[in-house]
């Protein structure tokens, strides 16, 4: 577990957590091809989608089950992230991607509890309280997300074989007054593997699902990923404008 010292922050529900925030979680997700021009409309000024071809970017759909938050200040909850891979739009920002600036812009982040939603305010994460039905037998995870009574999607992921992993990345948010980069780190076991027959998504009738269709998200992913272990979320950093 990460160092017990850190800055104490009280969230809107009255609980206090420390930053960097140490959690333990299991995650399973899939990466889908998406239209870069359409994805550009989802990200704020100061960021741009990372293009894998002139016309294509990607979208990561990630199902997360939290088991511990800090020193158990919050009840464990589930979360479902929708991320567009991005780099800062400035020339210096593009260069910083080579030094750890590459990350994902958090487009939507439904969660299952109000304290979990309030926790996201620390970093400006766009959290919404939703129904997340998660079925996991240790080898395969199926997650269904419903918001305001409308199904957004169902994601099915077969976990690839796990190996020890330790790496850092950045998650970008609007952050209210400015775009923010949130350093995150994972330490545990996990892996990434080609999609093939390891994953699939079914889109529902919620407006978010319609936006995913505009992105051209297909039923089969390019890749699947999984992780289990410690997930640490650090202090947000303001992204300098171009």
Structure, explained:
The protein is 13% helix and 54% strand. It is mainly β and 242 residues long. The protein has one domain (23-233): Acetoacetate decarboxylase-like. It has a seven-stranded mixed β-barrel with strand order 3-5-6-7-12-13-15. Strands 9-10-11-14 form a four-stranded antiparallel sheet, covered by helices on one side. The longest helix is centred in the middle third of the chain and has 11 residues, at 91-101. It is globular, with a radius of gyration of 17 Å. The N and C termini lie far apart (37 Å). The mean pLDDT is 92.
What's the gist of this structure?
This protein is mainly beta.
Topology:
Elements: E1 7-10, E2 16-19, E3 21-35, H1 36-40, E4 47-49, E5 56-69, E6 78-88, H2 91-101, E7 103-111, H3 114-119, E8 127-129, E9 131-136, E10 140-147, E11 150-158, E12 163-173, E13 180-194, E14 199-203, H4 207-215, E15 223-233, E16 237-238
Parallel strand pairs: 7-8, 7-12
Antiparallel strand pairs: 1-2, 3-5, 3-15, 4-6, 5-6, 6-7, 9-10, 10-11, 11-14, 12-13, 13-15, 13-16
